[in-house]
Amino acid sequence: MSGGLFFYYVLADETTDISQIEQFSLCIWYVEDHSYKIREDFPTFVPVYDVTGVGLANTVLVTLSSLGLDLKKIRGQGYVGAATMREQFTGVQASIKEKLPLDLYT
C-alpha cells in the first residue's frame, strides 16, 4: 500500500482493549496496480479520544493523512462496531461525506 493508490475504501471497527482504551482498527481496500487484485491492508490501530461523530471522522481523516493517503481518493467507507456506537458511526460517515462528496457510505 502506498500514497499513490488510485482509489481506496476505508473500513473501521471500534474496539475497547483490555486497559479500557477505545480504538479503531483501520483497514484499507484497494486494487493493486499491476495485478489488479483486490487487496486489504491493516495499517494500524488508532486510539479514540472523542467518540462523537465529528471526533471519530476527524480521527479517521487525520490517520489516513498521516499514512500518506490522499483523502480525495476515498471512494467508500464502512463501519462495524458495538450497538452503542451505531449513532456515532452515522455521524462519522456524514461528516466525511460532507468534506469528501465522492465518498460513498456502505
List keywords for this structure.
36% strand; DUF4371 domain-containing protein; globular; single chain; 5 strands; 106 residues; alpha/beta; DUF4371; Nucleotidyltransferase, domain 5
Class from secondary-structure proportions = alpha/beta
As laid out across the biggest beta sheet, the strand order is 3-2-1-4-5
Give the uncertain stretches in residue-range form: none
Strand and helix order: EEEHEHE
Number of strands: 5
User: From the 3D coordinates, which CATH architecture would you assign?
Assistant: 2-Layer Sandwich
**What characteristic shape results from the CA principal axes?**
globular
Can you count the helices?
2
Number of domains: 1
Mean pLDDT: 80
Describe this structure in words.
This is DUF4371 domain-containing protein. InterPro entries: DUF4371 (IPR025398). It comes from Araneus ventricosus (Orbweaver spider). It holds the Pfam family DUF4371. The longest helix has 14 residues. The chain is globular, with a radius of gyration of 13 Å. β4, α2 and β5 form a beta-alpha-beta unit. The protein has 106 residues and is of the alpha/beta class. 26% of the residues lie in helices and 36% in strands. The chain has a single domain, classed as Nucleotidyltransferase, domain 5. α1 packs across α2. A 5-stranded mixed β-sheet has the order 3-2-1-4-5, with helices on one face.
